[in-house]
TrEMBL record:
This is Prephenate dehydrogenase. Residues 1-283 form the Prephenate/arogenate dehydrogenase domain. SUPFAM superfamilies: 6-phosphogluconate dehydrogenase C-terminal domain-like, ACT-like, NAD(P)-binding Rossmann-fold domains. It comes from the Bacteria.
């Protein structure tokens, strides 16, 4: 791949363009908002001038509802040898393109499973896709050259290619992305008019659950409008679980001992089902999840604190598998939770104490 055209210079399009530029590809940028394309160009993602002729690959990075129209226009103008889109829904756009009577041998639907709560070119990064799955949905009609160009793009972005059927992909992202977005937003919505005294008690748990609720609503309306059926089916199942949980919790208020036992059993079953589902979430580097122990360290909110902790852990020969920070409400301090292999806990704890760190249980 020597040349590419990125149509849509938001977070995903600009990030892909930055990665391609780093690999020496000449990238042309276009957007319905010329100012956004100029911003992406100023960030080093390519040029906002039109190519002189057909490029090797056109990357359509617009919301799902606009993919068919943008792709159809690009293909009719023969802007590239191959065409892909990076929208988060795959089945619907392909059927819309088929209805337009286009030659789809040169088209491949793809979806990089990466993103951020922020959108737009200023949020873009060349390493956004590194180590992340990038779904490819070829059919028997997909031209081999187009598939190779898509694989080259995935390689340049240092992502991991995953081949799936388009409709299977849509059901999968409904489960792992679209439905969780709505549930997170619903939980966060409970905080909007909550008493200030209650909100001040927010800890890491509520921060984790509501993190993605900060996402752009306009972007999510586009996504959910393109995949409503699978998401509605999943929410219906969640609603059934919620109804069961409500009945069980009401039973726990009963004066009838048998009802309380039944309610407790139902709640426990729900929590254990959650345990079983959580275990299936891939762990570090996509491997099977592993059980780590936590070493919690109290730190001041000052420059260099994290660097010192990591350096001291490294000096003790301990690999930090993961890290989380829980901030203390209203204080310039917090807890750094270092996730390590169970056998590393005593060694790391002793080393950190020797270096003056205050550990917490």
């Amino acid at each position: 791949m020597r040349t590419a055209l990125v149509l849509g210079t938001g977070l995903i399009g600009t990030s892909a363009a930055l990665a391609l530029v780093q690999r020496g590809v000449t990238v042309h940028l276009a957007d319905h908002d010329p100012e956004q394309a100029r911003t992406a160009a100023a960030l080093g993602a390519g040029t906002d001038t039109a190519p002189d002729g057909p490029v090797d690959l056109a990357v359509v990075a617009v919301p799902p509802a606009h993919v068919p129209a943008v792709l159809a226009d690009a293909m009719r103008r023969e802007t590239a040898r191959g065409y892909i889109d990076v929208a988060s829904v795959k089945g619907g756009p392909r059927r819309d393109l088929e209805a337009l009577g286009l030659d789809l041998t040169r088209y491949l639907g793809t979806h990089p499973m990466s993103g951020r709560e922020k959108s737009g070119p200023l949020a873009a990064s060349a390493d956004l896709f590194e180590g992340r799955p990038w779904v490819l949905t070829p059919t028997r009609d997909t031209d081999t050259e187009v598939l190779n160009l898509a694989l080259e793009l995935v390689s340049f972005c240092r992502a991991v290619p995953v081949v799936m059927d388009a409709d299977a992909h849509d059901r999968a992202v409904a489960l792992v992305s679209h439905m969780p977005q709505l549930v997170s937003s619903m939980v966060a919505a409970r905080l909007e008019h909550a008493e200030e005294a209650a909100v001040r008690l927010c800890g890491q748990g509520i921060r984790d659950v509501t993190r993605i609720a900060a996402s752009d609503p306009r972007m999510w309306i586009d996504i959910l409008s393109a995949n409503p059926g699978p998401v509605a089916d999943l929410l219906s199942d969640v609603a059934a679980d919620l109804d069961e949980a409500v009945r069980a919790l009401r039973a726990l208020q009963s004066s009838d001992e048998a009802k309380r036992r039944e309610g407790s059993s139902t709640v426990e079953s729900l929590l254990r089902r959650g345990n079983a589902g959580r275990v299936r979430v891939p762990g570090k580097h996509g491997s099977a999840p592993r059980s780590y122990e936590v070493v919690a360290v109290l730190i001041d909110d000052q420059p260099g604190q994290l660097a010192r902790i990591f350096a001291d852990a490294g000096a003790a020969g301990i690999n930090i598998e993961d890290v989380r920070i829980e901030h203390a409400t209203g204080q310039q301090a917090g807890l750094v939770q270092l996730m390590v292999e169970p056998q590393a806990v005593p060694v790391l704890s002793a080393a950190l104490r020797d270096r003056g760190w205050a550990l917490r249980q």
